[in-house]
# Entry
Amino acid sequence: MRTPIIAGNWKMNNNPEDTTNFVEAVKNQLPDSSKVEAVIAAPAVDLPALLAAAKGSNLHTAAENCYFENAGAFTGETSPLVLSQMGINYVVIGHSERRDYFHETDEDINKKAHAVFANQMTPIICCGESLETREAGQAEEWVQRQVTAALKDLSAAQVASLVIAYEPIWAIGTGKTATSDQAQEICHVIRETVKSLYDEETSDKVRIQYGGSVKPANVKELMSKPDIDGGLVGGASLQPDSFLQLVNYQD
Ligand code: 13P
# Structure
């Protein structure tokens, strides 16, 4: 059985004080981690506050990005080694905003996945097509290609433990959610891709999230789909009440 994983991705929002206040507001109402894993991915500048406030609670922590080298002359980058030393659990990599605005390539994302594992953390690897690609009928092959490139040279055990987030770009921040059937269709393609690259055991274990205008009103329906194991949530993760409704969707 795959444990559901609901992760808030705050993007470039909130300061350390906001972070502390948010965690204080949610930390005693989170589900048991064996039932639903609740995660917040916060900006690098907020991570010390996130870790301090989340300590001893059921809240798991994520960075929104990292570099693929541990140290050196890489001005402005975040070290995966230091994230790991701080106690961060997950790192989101390959978000479409990073691919589009910061020109991250499939090769960069694969190197980051290796670096995250080398530092005993778990990657949440994002993929997803643009509206143009979807309308051209190429969403499936686009996502297959992104997933194949991101997983290059990872072991079956590594892939079984990681998280893949399917985030159609046309549904991010637009209020336009993919229908649960559209989301399920591509999440199934992702699981089949993992199966063809590895084996059935690995594809049964890998957790796949849907992201793109997930909110309390649609989370249950999305989570009812067989290949959707979680959500990666932007806007609706910024308010404690809304985040709590998302992670407690089973209640
Ligand atoms: P929204 O939930 O705001 O559409 O953002 C989705 C997303 O990009 C999460 O990573």
